[in-house]
Each structure stands twice: as C-alpha cells, then as structure tokens.
C-alpha cells in the first residue's frame, strides 16, 4: 500500500508540473518586472529539478503541509479540512442508501428470477447503467429541488442552523438529495451483482444438501443462499468507495455542495494546482484504502482466503 | 431381512422441455428392503440420479406420477413441510462431490448441527455439539474436536465425504441414498468410504440405495442390483446372478465393456450408438433396440414388459432370449486371461 | 527407439509467505523423475490426487515450468523451450476437464478444425469432411458440427477434445485422465479407438490415470507416482502380478473386484495388505513420508526400496 501511494504521489506531481504555467502565472500583476518574477520563482524553488521540488513537496505533505492555495489564500490543509467532513458525510449517506436500496432489490430479483418483479428491477438496472450520473443529478435537482421544491438546491447546511439538533437535521436535509441521486445510479451494479450471485448460489450443490437435510425453503434461502451471496457484496464496500469519489466530483458540483469534489473542479478551473494535487492525492489514497478494506473484509467473511 | 422399507410403484418423473413433458424416470417399480444395499446402475442420462432425487423430493420443477411408499406414507405429492420432517431424518442422502455438497462458508460443526437442530428442535446447543463430535468420530475423523471447527476447504476429499456421511446419518436414517458417493475419490479412499457405508448399514440396519456407474463398486457392495437404461429399469437381480448370469443385452454389454485388472481383453466391447437424450427417447418399443441393430425388430416386444425369469430376476423385453454378441466385428470380445 | 526421454525432472512451485511474500518453501510437485517412453508404446502414469502425475504431463507439453532436469523428444532437448508452441503438431494433449478445455464461444466444427487450419492447408470441403470423420470416430453425431460446447454433456465434450487432439495425427499424445468423465460404454469406445489409431499411426501415448483397470488394459509400461516421486516402474505384468512396494500393493488391493463371490477373500486380502502397510511403513518411507530412489529388481522392474545396510 505504501509503494502504491508513493507512485501515485510522483505521478500526480509530474502531471501537475506538466500543466502549462505554474503557480505564479496569472496570479502576479502582469506589469511586474520579469527579473523580480524570476527571483520570486527562484525563491519559491520553482527552478529546481523536479525531484528536488517533489522532495520538498512530499516531505512537507508528510508533515501535513500541502502548501497554500493561491485562490483562497490559505493553507491547503485548512481548506481541505473544512470540506472533507462534508464529503465524508455525503459518501456515508450514499453508501447507506445504496445498501438499503440494493439489497432488497437484489434479493427479490435473484430469488424470483425471471418473474415480473425481476424484469422490472432488471429494467431499472439497465437504465441505471445507461444513464450518466451528471444528467441524472441534474434531473433530480430540477425535479425535487426546483419543480417540487422539496429539497434545498445548494449548500451543505442552512446558515441559520448553527448548533444542536437543528444543525444535524439541516445537514441531513441538504445531504439527502445528492446522496439519493448518487445512490440510485450507484446501486445498479450492486443489484446486478447480488442478483447473479443469488441465482448462482441457488444452483449450488450445497443448497441441495440443505434441502436434503429437511430445511424449509425459507431456511434454505436465509441461512444458505442469502448469507453466501451477501458476503461477497460486503467485500464490494471498498470498491464502492472508489466509485463514490468519481460520483462526488459530479454531484457536489451539480448540487453546489461544498465538499472535496466541488473543490476539485473549482481548483482545476482556477488552476489552483496545489489544491488539485492535494485533493487528487487524497482521492487516490481513499481508493487504495478502499481496495485494502475490500481485501480485509473478504478475508474476514470468506474462510477460504483467510490468512493463516 | 425381507422387510420392505421403500416401495416404488410406477414412478414417472417428467421434465418440461419447451412445451412438452419428457420422462427422465419412466414407469419405475422397485422395492428396497431393510438392511440391504440395492445398487442402481446406469450411465449418465439413464435416470438413476433423477430417480434418487424423486425419492428425496428434490426436483423443484418436475411432474411426478406414481407412488413411492415409505412405510405407509406416499412421498409423491407430499406437502413440503411433511417431506421436510422425513428428509434428513428417516431418509437421507450422500452426494457425489463432497466439496460442492458442503457450504463453503460454514464450519463442519455447524453444518452437522444444522441437521440435528432441524429434527431435534428441543436439543440444546451443547447437546448438538456433543452429537456432532460423536458423529465425526463415528465416520472416522481422527481429531473430531479440531475438524468440528474447520471449513470444508481445509479437508481432503475423503474427509469431506465423511462429513457428508456424518450429516446423512446424524438422525439415524432408515433409508440412505448414496449418489455416486466415491466417484470423485481416489481408489484407496473409495475403499475406506465404501467400508464405512457398509459398516454403517450394519449398525443402523438401514436400507441403502447405492447409485453408481461403476460395476466394480456394485460387485463389492450390492445385495441386489437394478440396471437402468434411458429412464427405465431393464434388469433386476441379486448381485451374483447379475454378474454371472445377466440376461438383458444392455447389462451384458456393460459387463463386457469395462476393463478390469484381473482380465486383459484385447478389445473392449463397444455399445454402438449413443445414449439418447431425454428429448430423443424412443417412446415406443424396446429402448435398447437401436443400439443392437443386428437383432431383428420382431424379437423385441411392442410394449416391453418386465419378465420374472427366475425368482427375483426380472428382465425387460423378450429380446434378451435372442441376443448374441456379433462375432468378428467391433464387438469382438475374445478374452485373454493372463 | 525412445521417443521421449526424461531425466531427473523437477517441477517445484514456490510457496510465498510473510509480509514481503518471500519464498518460504517449495511444493515439490515432481521431484526427480526419470522416464523413457518407446515409440508406439503406451506408458501409463498412475497416482492418486496430489501425486504429481498431471504436473508431469503438463511439464512435457510445456504447460508447466520446469525447475530442473531434461526432456528429450526424439533425441532433441526440449525442456528449455517455453510455451506450448514448441511441439507444433507432434505432441498433443487430451485434457482431464472437458468443461474448461473447450472454447465456449466456438462451434464444435471450428474447435476441431482449428489445429487443421493451423497446420494443414485443406479446402473447405476437405476440412469439413475431415471434421465429420473425426466426429464419427469419436462417436458424435454429424449435427454436432454446428453446435456449441455447452450443448453437450461432459462426456461428449471430452470426445470433442479427443477429436481435436487426433486431428493432426501427432506422434505423442499426452492423455490426462482422458476417459474418467465418460460413461462406461463410451469409455470403451474411446479406449478401443485410441488403440486403433495407435496401431494405425504408430502413436505413442503417455496415459495418465488413476483407474488401474484402464491402465492395465491400455499400457505396456507403468510408472506409479506418490508425492512427486516414482514408487515403482515396470511392465504391466511386473506391476500387477508382482508389486514390490507396499504402496503399490495397497493401491492394487483397493481396486474393486468385479466378482462378488470374492468378497470374503477380498476383505481378508485387504486386511493383510493394510497390516503389512502399517507395519512396514517406516521402512518404505523416509522421515518426510517420501519414497526412496528406484532400484532395479529385474531388467524391466524398478522399485523404490529402502537403502539396505
């Protein structure tokens, strides 16, 4: 995991370096003397070889100093820490909604495969696969936010709610629509996976063994089929995180939700590269951690690959 | 010895393919007695496993006609909740592939305990554990307490099959159906498992239906044998009669087609043609006729019946009286004794 | 002339462990085996699961990496060449698992024709005729030509695999449990057929099986493997009439007897063999449970007997 993060950080750093211009371009008064600009570059270390610059950056980053945002004129670390909790809450809400929707749908679809309900659910998953998240997000925003006016159309909390239950409720209220939008699109892969897993498990020999033991159909399903099909889904959790990151970038921008995803887009547009690198690095680390979580969960739930 | 345990009368089990029903088990009548091993021999597609599944009520989408009397009760058409009281208790089953027959995510102990719990709902947790460990010991697991906590993938094939057997005998069944119980195992392990099954039969005085394609296993184990071909029983006899004095052309061909260690044949007998698929079963006349084309069609019965040609020896169709192996052809079976 | 000569073949797999996935030990799947197969003969390789017999076959055809030792095919060293392509049309394999060895997306006609297309220039009519002949030889109906593997039973699929392997009339065929998935009657058909083409084309077989009845029927020379090593090697008569190693004796005693009137004798015989096995186990196996190197007991018969004195 450490080497992966290391490689990721180098790649990100080089990509940022490869972008046209640097932190001073477009920020400095154009009438400034080019010699002074050169001196400033020298002072900031922008003329050093890339590995020296990288080393400066990574050793600072390791100490929690990711540099300054040129746009917001504040340390990146501080900027991110304001946003990161919003994104975490959004991700958590999305995950919870995803499983709340996916598990019942997957179970119905898998248990009663090729029936009317299964066809409806499968139809939904095909639409979900085909529908781009940003279009679906816009539709949700327009319909529930503007047309029906049931949900707020931006922000992460009502500025007037500052503390206590009101604050929490307001947070949840703002979360709900973006989280639901992401979940409704995100569930389709989990539903399909669970459905296939159940149909597959139904035909396994040990299910026949369970019936031959005299177990009732409901016991066969609850103790053997669902249990065995849900465990691989649990391991999906880590990979969901990766999917969520991509989702938040779109969804936060559409819903004007002040999280990392929105910050990411804004920073790219504003050429705020120190922020872009920092956010991308965090996203990358989250993905790697996600994969690790998947491995760990799989290790816990599946005795066949348990580390001795 | 002669007490009837299971009586199958005119059992037909059909599966729906497209818009028609096809009988995988066709008008089968059989009796299994207490404390006997009845072997059902046949190739794939003969219907032998379909017959076993019919007795167990494990076919989910099949049409079953006829009667299967287990004692006084008819298993055909029995509601699921009643059937579940018998399955795993009075009638149980051993499967071919012990790895896939066990739930990979449950410990051995829990899988055995499940069947105890289902039929002894009043038993406590500790009692079930005690029984499970006792069963593991009974089926010859060397360290029952250790294996109790293990998962199927941690055990060898032979050990897994012992677990499957432990589950099957947990509630002292009166009838045990073993569906190719040793096909997936090495020959020395096969011997151990067969010994175990024989031992358990003597212990429990249960009736055993042994389903296999392996005539060697049959010769070692069975008291009586029923030979199945294309969904029908073609010959029933005690094992000595079957090996020395088989009548039906199919049985005779089968016996001639296996290579054995004791007898080196220059050429094995080949049964012409192929086993017909369920959809292509001949619906009229002798089903084996297409595979012995040198026997004239008038030697076959129009509606082949089972004939009792000696006490307890039944043969289907009269063609057996006229059957011979064609000489100097593919079917040449000169024996070279070494 | 010997067509295949294997000297001190070892196939070891590393076992990795610990945090750094370093090699902590090796699985000695094949651990120093010598084998010579004469052209036109059938060499039977017998063993229980985990004996390394399958690994041997796969090593010869290049599907398994060789750790050390030499493999000579018609006098040429081929052990160092990587990959299957090394053998072209001369060595073919019949696989054990009829389910995974056929491409599910191809029609049976194409599967069987594939080696023909790679090595022989046939007109479409000739090719079709050849494929139909092959289908008939392995006992499949002509309609099979246009079907896909999933439409066949396990036994029928194996016959497709055999048709593919013999399409090019190779010199050596490695048959790994070729009939264990087949029904008895079909099994006989395939075994007879294998012997027929062997005579016709002077084929050599390396026949890997756990079924001693089939091995006896098919093979001229037999090698018995246990845990990657040879326990005993000899002619069919050597092995079946005078087995020397207790492992071999036990294996042969375990074969079901087709004559039910022998039951009592068999029980007695097996009990005595088992007694001997238990008693002599420490003499015949070293501290790791492995057998000793082979020693000749006659011109043809070699047994892994313990060092004496």
TrEMBL record, chain C:
InterPro entries: AAA+_ATPase, ABC_transp_ATP-bind, ABC_transporter-like_ATP-bd, ABC_transporter-like_CS, Oligopep_ABC_C, P-loop_NTPase. Pfam families: ABC_tran (PF00005), oligo_HPY (PF08352). Residues 4-252 form the ABC transporter domain. SUPFAM superfamilies: P-loop containing nucleoside triphosphate hydrolases. Keywords: ATP-binding, Nucleotide-binding, Transport. PANTHER family: ABC TRANSPORTER, ATP-BINDING PROTEIN, TRANSPORT ATP-BINDING PROTEIN. This is Peptide ABC transporter ATP-binding protein. It comes from Paenibacillus apis. The gene is oppF_2.
């Amino acid at each position: 995991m450490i080497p992966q993060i290391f490689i990721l950080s180098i790649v990100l750093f080089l990509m940022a370096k490869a972008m046209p211009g640097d932190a001073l371009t477009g920020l400095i008064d154009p009438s400034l003397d080019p010699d002074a600009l050169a001196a400033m570059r020298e002072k900031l270390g922008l003329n050093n070889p890339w590995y020296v610059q990288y080393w400066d950056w990574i050793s600072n980053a390791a100490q929690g100093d990711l540099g300054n945002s040129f746009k917001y004129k504040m340390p990146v670390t501080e900027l991110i820490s304001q946003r990161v909790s919003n994104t975490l809450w959004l991700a958590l809400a999305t995950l919870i909604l995803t499983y709340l929707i996916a598990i019942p749908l997957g179970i119905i679809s898998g248990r009663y495969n090729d029936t009317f309900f299964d066809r409806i659910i499968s139809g939904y998953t095909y639409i979900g696969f085909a529908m781009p998240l940003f279009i679906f997000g816009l539709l949700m925003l327009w319909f529930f936010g503007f047309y029906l006016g049931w949900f707020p159309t931006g922000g992460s909390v009502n500025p007037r709610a500052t503390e206590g239950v009101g604050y929490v409720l307001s947070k949840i209220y703002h979360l709900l629509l973006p989280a639901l939008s992401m979940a409704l699109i995100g569930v389709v892969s989990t539903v399909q996976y669970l459905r296939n897993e159940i149909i597959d498990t139904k035909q396994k020999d040990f299910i026949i063994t369970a019936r031959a033991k005299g177990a009732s159909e409901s016991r066969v399903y609850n103790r053997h089929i669902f249990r065995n099909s849900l465990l691989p889904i649990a391991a999906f959790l880590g990979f969901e995180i990766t999917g969520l990151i991509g989702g938040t970038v779109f969804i936060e921008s559409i819903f004007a939700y002040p999280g990392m995803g929105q910050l990411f887009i804004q920073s790219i547009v504003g050429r705020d590269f120190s922020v872009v690198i920092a956010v991308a690095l965090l996203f990358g680390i989250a993905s790697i951690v996600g994969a690790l979580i998947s491995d760990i969960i799989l290790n816990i739930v599946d005795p066949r690959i348990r580390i001795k | 010895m002669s007490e009837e345990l299971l009586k199958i009368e005119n059992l037909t089990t059909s599966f729906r393919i497209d818009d028609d029903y096809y009988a995988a088990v066709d008008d089968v009548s059989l009796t299994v007695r207490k404390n006997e091993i009845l072997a059902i021999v046949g190739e794939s597609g003969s219907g032998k496993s379909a017959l076993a599944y019919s007795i167990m009520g494990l076919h989910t989408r099949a049409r079953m006609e006829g009667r299967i009397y287990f004692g006084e009760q008819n298993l055909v058409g029995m509601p699921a909740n009643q059937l579940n009281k018998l399955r795993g208790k009075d009638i149980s089953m051993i499967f071919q592939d012990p790895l896939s027959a066990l739930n990979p995510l449950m410990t051995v102990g829990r899988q055995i305990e499940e069947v105890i719990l289902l039929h002894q709902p009043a038993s406590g947790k500790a009692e079930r554990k005690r029984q499970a460990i006792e069963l593991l010991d009974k089926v010859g697991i060397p360290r029952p307490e250790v294996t109790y906590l293990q998962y199927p993938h941690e055990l060898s094939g032979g050990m897994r099959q012992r677990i499957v057997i432990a589950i099957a005998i947990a509630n002292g069944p009166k009838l045990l159906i073993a569906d190719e119980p040793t096909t997936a195992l090495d020959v020395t392990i096969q011997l151990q498992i067969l010994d175990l099954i024989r031992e358990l039969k003597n212990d429990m005085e249960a009736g055993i239906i042994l389903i296999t394609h392996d005539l060697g296993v049959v010769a070692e184990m069975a008291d009586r044998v029923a030979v199945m071909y294309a969904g029908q029983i073609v010959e029933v006899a005690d094992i000595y009669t079957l090996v020395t004095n088989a009548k039906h052309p199919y049985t005779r061909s089968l016996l001639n087609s296996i290579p054995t260690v004791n007898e080196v044949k220059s050429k094995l007998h080949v049964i012409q043609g192929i086993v017909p698929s369920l959809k292509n079963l001949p619906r009229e006349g002798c089903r084996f006729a297409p595979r012995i084309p040198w026997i004239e069609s008038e030697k076959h019965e129009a509606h082949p019946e089972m004939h009792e040609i000696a006490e307890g020896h039944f043969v289907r169709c009269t063609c057996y009286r006229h059957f011979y192996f064609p000489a100097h052809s593919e079917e040449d079976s000169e024996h070279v004794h070494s | 002339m010997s067509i295949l000569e294997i000297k001190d073949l070892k196939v070891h797999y590393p076992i990795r462990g610990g945090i750094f996935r370093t090699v902590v030990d090796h699985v000695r799947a094949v651990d120093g085996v010598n084998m010579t197969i004469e052209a036109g003969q059938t060499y039977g390789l017998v063993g229980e699961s985990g004996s390394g017999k399958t690994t041997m076959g796969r090593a010869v055809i290049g599907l398994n990496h060789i750790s050390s030792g030499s493999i000579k095919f018609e006098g040429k060293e081929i052990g160092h060449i990587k990959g299957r392509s090394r053998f072209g049309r001369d060595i073919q394999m019949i696989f054990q698992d009829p389910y995974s060895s056929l491409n599910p997306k191809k029609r049976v006609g194409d599967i069987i024709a594939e080696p023909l297309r790679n090595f022989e220039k046939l007109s479409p009519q000739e090719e079709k005729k050849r494929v139909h002949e092959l289908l008939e030889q392995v006992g499949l109906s002509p309609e099979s030509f246009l079907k896909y593997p999933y439409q066949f039973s396990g036994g029928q699929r194996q016959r497709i695999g055999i048709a593919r392997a013999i399409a090019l009339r190779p010199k050596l065929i490695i048959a790994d449990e070729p009939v264990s998935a087949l029904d008895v009657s079909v099994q006989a058909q395939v075994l007879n057929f294998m012997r027929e083409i062997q005579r016709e084309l002077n084929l050599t077989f390396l026949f890997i099986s756990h079924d001693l009845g089939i091995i006896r029927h098919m093979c001229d020379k037999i090698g018995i493997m246990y845990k990657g090593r040879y326990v005993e090697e000899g002619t069919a008569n050597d092995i079946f009439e005078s087995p020397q190693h207790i492992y071999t004796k036990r294996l042969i005693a375990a074969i079901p007897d087709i004559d039910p009137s022998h039951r009592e004798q068999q029980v007695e015989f097996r009990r005595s063999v088992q007694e001997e096995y238990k008693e002599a186990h420490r003499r015949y196996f070293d501290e790791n449970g492995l057998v000793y190197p082979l020693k000749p007991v006659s011109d043809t018969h070699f047994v892994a007997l313990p060092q004496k004195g």
